[in-house]
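INFO worker-7 received task bundle
INFO bundle size: 2
INFO processing item 0
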Amino acid sequence: MGANRGKQHSIIINAEGSGISSQELTETIQYRTGKDTRLVVLSYLQRGGSPTLRDRMLATLTGAKAVELLKDDSDSKAIGTVDGEIAAYDLIDALEQKRENRQGDVRFNRRAEQIERLKNENRSSIYQ
């Protein structure tokens, strides 16, 4: 664990279908460790409401990148998309970047919208 290596904070990612709710996990960790434990559900934090297909795709890809960085013992990174690909930057570098509407982000958005539209069409045809 990170505490054994002198780390002051930990990030724990709980996947849907893991068998324990995020709230239960938070309470269990706090009870067993006695440490202040907080729960953040990113999709709700960012915009509220139920997650869309794009939210789920982006969460999966950024979560995988976060796990990869944790395995590499990487510190203080910001994760986002650049030209439709998941990228990680040092926090200082990320804060200095200007936000641009990149072509890759547009392609990612369009593909997610196409998949969502097809999914909705399939649902409606089932009930006809």
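INFO item 0 finished
INFO processing item 1
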Amino acid sequence: MQNIKNEQSERLLIAISGGIGAGKSIISKHIHKYFNIPKLDFDQLGHQVLTDDIFFKRQLIHEFGSTITSETVQGSKPIIDRKALGSIVFNDSSKLLWLEQQMHPRIQALFSEKLALLPPSPYTLVEVSLFFDKYQTLHSLFDA
């Protein structure tokens, strides 16, 4: 992950972090809108991982069972029911740890991909709720 900063040396990464209801989304939305600063949202990246990564979906179903899939099916791809998954992992710390160990590297890889595709800008906002708790490996990439 260290090479992100080298590739984006002209781009300052600004983390907007806080707990649920802290106002991260409102602040990043307004800064993005009024100053035209590109932004990335780790929650959205996490949702994209659960939506698009079919290999990972299979891993999740193998680990947690088919109860984490919804009745609706996208073509032949199962849809992960985040509420069902949450009800399992938030009641078992070892399952939550397993999920985090699987999700965070995928989210970080997707972050790298998305960052490289952003239009040139001196700044990029990154909304990340678990920045201080779960994403220590990213700290060195950020400027503010």
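INFO item 1 finished
INFO post-check item 1: The first strand starts at residue 12 and ends at 16.
INFO post-check item 1: The chain has six helices and five strands.
INFO worker-7 idle
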